């Protein structure tokens, strides 16, 4: 009897095997597992033993299967389709492109704004319908890059372009190279700060969360937050 070793290491003893078809007796409860095992990545190029003129399966993908009951046992026959090498190459290229895109998207979470704008197409699309977003996360909406300024549970009725409390659009004018240099001075307990003002305390840059912010030392309470440039 022929034997086939799949690419995931699973071995099956078969009743018969052809280039595009295999068959074996099995238990009813094993049928689902067998079908799942016959995925394209497992069957294509699988090694065949003890089969006349067949030592290796071609580039295959599952087409269909049938099951019958005879002489007190179940028999499954699985049919495959040949896959052109060009289709396999295209699938690999697509997978590599998706992997690169995912890698770039992760890097854009901490990149400079100018780079986020340049490569915005690699950012994940904004997801509505109660998707939780954390402060600092970046995404694109209608092709434009955004950053979360305050944690929010998204809603299709409150899109980023309409909610500047939780989201901000990343624009070229926000690139540090396009803005005049601002001197950030040490925090002064006697000075009154407004929302968005910056100050240095203990070597760390903070941004004021409120107007009329006086006497509240940065790093304690919610009147100040760490500034992320």
Describe the protein.
This protein has a four-stranded antiparallel beta sheet. Strands 2-1-5 form a three-stranded antiparallel beta sheet, with no helix packed on it. Strands 9-10-12 form a three-stranded antiparallel beta sheet, with no helix packed on it. By secondary structure, it is α+β, with helices and mostly antiparallel strands. The chain has three domains: 3-83, no CATH class; 105-174, Seminal Fluid Protein  PDC-109 (Domain B); 182-229, Seminal Fluid Protein  PDC-109 (Domain B). It has helices at residues 31-37, 40-43, 85-108, 113-118; strands at 3-5, 11-13, 16-18, 21-26, 47-49, 60-70, 73-82, 132-133, 138-141, 144-148, 152-153, 167-169, 198-201, 204-208, 224-226.
Task: Write a compact overview of the structure shown.
The protein has 229 residues and is of the alpha+beta class. It has helices at residues 31-37, 40-43, 85-108, 113-118, and strands at residues 3-5, 11-13, 16-18, 21-26, 47-49, 60-70, 73-82, 132-133, 138-141, 144-148, 152-153, 167-169, 198-201, 204-208, 224-226.
